[in-house]
Amino acid sequence: MSTRKLFPALFMAALLLLPATALATTVDLPEFGVVLHFPASLDVFTRSMDMDDPVPALYGTTPQAVREELAGAGLYAKAYDVAGAFTITLALKYTDQPALDSLDAEGLQQAARTLGGEEYELVGTRQGSFLLVREQDGKAASALFQGGRLWMKLRLRAGSHVDSGMLSLLRGILRRAEFTLGQ
């Protein structure tokens, strides 16, 4: 096999061997001490996205318009499933609410109701837990983190119904969350 044919084959093999997170989008929010890793199957827009990023044009918008839309909605990021099945939004703020890890079962149930659901699960990270709730309409799921004065909510909104694959993807984002300000 000639070198000309061997190089593209080796390049493709190397790409296939990369872990999925190697192609992921990292959202770094130093003002909150949070880093989130979104899989490559999502197009992620942030308030700080590059002004020459070509991806917003695929959605009929511009980086400047995306920045303004996110800020106006109180969001720091919005991720679009490249297949169009769902979006994930990210909101953050500082709060005096108690850490989720300090709540008893009744407190967690109340927090789940506040997020629009009844059943919940706790998704652990090294710095605390997210409360993951599938909302009653079946078309959305929310994940809430409260701890160290930080309030963070990721909300997955599906075009139809939230399925197990979507929840698995969301859990993966939550489990890889990094907190750098001592949450």
Structural class: alpha+beta
- List the secondary-structure elements in sequence, H or E: HEEEHHEEHEEEEHE
Contiguous helical run count: 5
User: Mind describing the biggest β-sheet?
Assistant: 7 strands, antiparallel
Overall mean pLDDT stands at 88
Low-confidence stretches: 6-22
Write the layout of secondary structure elements.
Elements lengths: L2 H15 L7 E5 L4 E5 L3 E5 L8 H4 L4 H11 L3 E5 L4 E9 L10 H10 L5 E6 L2 E7 L5 E8 L2 E9 L5 H12 L2 E2 L4
Antiparallel strand pairs: 1-2, 2-10, 3-4, 4-5, 5-9, 6-7, 7-8, 8-9
Brief rundown of the structure:
The chain is of the alpha+beta class and 183 residues long.
Describe the structure.
The chain has 5 helices and 10 strands; from the N terminus they run αβββααββαββββαβ. The relative contact order is 0.15. The radius of gyration is 18 Å and the shape is globular. It has about 180 residues and is of the alpha+beta class.
